[in-house]
Design a protein that fits this description.
Adenine-n6-DNA-methyltransferase TaqI, Chain A, domain 2, 3 domains, five-stranded mixed sheet, disordered C terminus, 406 residues, 21% strand, alpha+beta, single chain
């Protein structure tokens, strides 16, 4: 393939988008209006958008480009590419590329996807990075013959579809493993009888309402939600408090070894354990709830299993409050009811839940690794094809895919 290079402005007309005012007559019409939120991470045809415009909305603040144009997100994030599946308007977070000559927009869309990092490097701005019209217009692209463009785009459509299908299958594997784990936990927990109020099993205390004026550069760590990582309490993202003030006002909140923390506003049932000696003595921020056994015969690993169960989530979902962010606290937890089996059965349930979670995490890690490798392979394949690093005129897609290093 001949490597002719030219700036985008020679191949496409660059069109800026816009946003109409909020008057009702501008919105809810039949004209799709794209924003960066309507893009995916890969080149796709955009056929529907989250919001639509009326003709009045287009006239007052936007612009329509024809079907078969390229849309490039030029802020938050830069470098996502889509093909308009119909005549389409778009906002100022995108720029459209309308062909000036006969061109296969799929070929150029793939090329821009492969050069996303280069596009992002062109972004400028102090508040947020934006790729200007001038920078995008000057960006150089490979421009082979139209026949080569068609051939390469057809090849990449087929090969990326195979890779995307594999990525979706690994996503399904991860989801199915998580669903299986949830069913196993639910079955184990719900087999237990002797339902009692949860407050008979664990005591709960929410972290104190500490203000930003109390933060120091050193002292007693103040644990934030960011510190709850993969089932353990860490100092990640912590602030610090004056030790004297902690001793006089918040000493009852200091964490002990083997304490459990749960967030009242984050992922349901995610319990983190204090294992790190550096965390002992720290204070949890408001919104984090300390869990401690209320009886000597309570196995906290069983409590963790219960908090991951649907029996818990169904109850707490009925009790949560908050119009914008759903939140629960000790008042809600005190109304939850839970099984309290014998210590032996608690240990059995905890072991079953642990094994189910371990299996789900193993599957998720496997799927994540494979998706990352497939994504690298996809990028390498696109880059090699659009830059002419191999001749696809007689290539078998499978052979070429195997020959490209990720």
């Amino acid at each position: 393939m001949t490597r002719n290079m030219m700036p985008i402005r020679r191949v496409f007309r660059v069109v800026n988008g816009g946003t109409p005012s909020s008057e009702p007559e501008n919105w809810g019409g039949d004209i799709p209006w794209a924003t960066p939120a309507d893009f995916t991470g890969c080149l796709t045809e955009i056929t529907t958008t989250r919001r639509t415009l009326t003709p009045a909305g287009v006239r007052s603040g936007s612009v329509v480009v024809p079907r078969g144009s390229l849309l490039v997100s030029t802020r938050a994030p830069i470098g996502y590419v889509g093909i308009t599946g119909s005549d389409m308007a778009f906002n100022q977070g995108c720029r459209a590329l309308v062909p000036r000559m006969a061109a296969d927009v799929r070929f150029f869309g793939y090329q821009l996807e492969a050069q996303r990092l280069d596009l992002q490097a062109q972004g400028l701005g102090t508040t947020f990075l934006e790729l200007s019209s001038d920078k995008l217009s000057s960006f150089t692209v490979v421009t082979p013959s139209l026949d080569d463009q068609h051939r390469i785009a057809d090849f990449l459509d087929a090969e990326t579809a195979r890779i995307d299908q594999l990525i979706e299958l690994y996503g399904q594997l991860s989801r199915l493993a998580a669903e299986r784990s949830q069913r196993v936990v639910d079955k184990a927990v719900e087999a237990c009888t002797d339902i009692v109020p949860l407050r008979y099993i664990v005591r709960f205390r929410e972290g104190p309402g500490i203000m930003a004026v109390d933060f120091h550069t050193a002292g007693v760590p103040l644990i934030r939600i960011a510190g709850l990582k993969k089932g353990e309490v860490t100092l990640n993202g912590c602030n610090f408090l004056d030790p004297d003030k902690v001793a006089s006002q918040w000493s009852q909140f200091r964490l002990r070894l083997d304490d459990r923390l749960i967030s009242g506003s984050a992922t349901m049932g995610e319990v983190s354990v204090v294992r790190d000696p550096d965390v002992v003595g720290s204070v949890p921020y408001t919104g984090l709830i300390i869990l401690r056994p209320a009886q000597a015969n309570v196995d906290m690993k069983y409590v963790e299993a219960f908090l991951r169960s649907s029996l818990f989530s169904r109850q707490i979902n009925l009790l949560k409050t908050g119009a914008t962010m759903q939140h629960f606290g000790p008042t809600h937890l005190s109304q939850v009811r839970a099984p309290l089996p014998s210590p032996d059965q608690q240990r059995r349930v905890a072991a079953i839940a642990h094994e189910a979670q371990r299996h789900a995490m193993t599957c998720e890690e496997l799927a994540t690794r494979q998706v990352a490798l497939l994504s690298e392979r996809r990028h390498a394949l696109i880059h090699a094809a659009v830059t002419g690093q191999f001749d696809i005129s007689s290539a078998s897609g499978r052979n070429v895919t195997e020959g490209v290093s990720a």
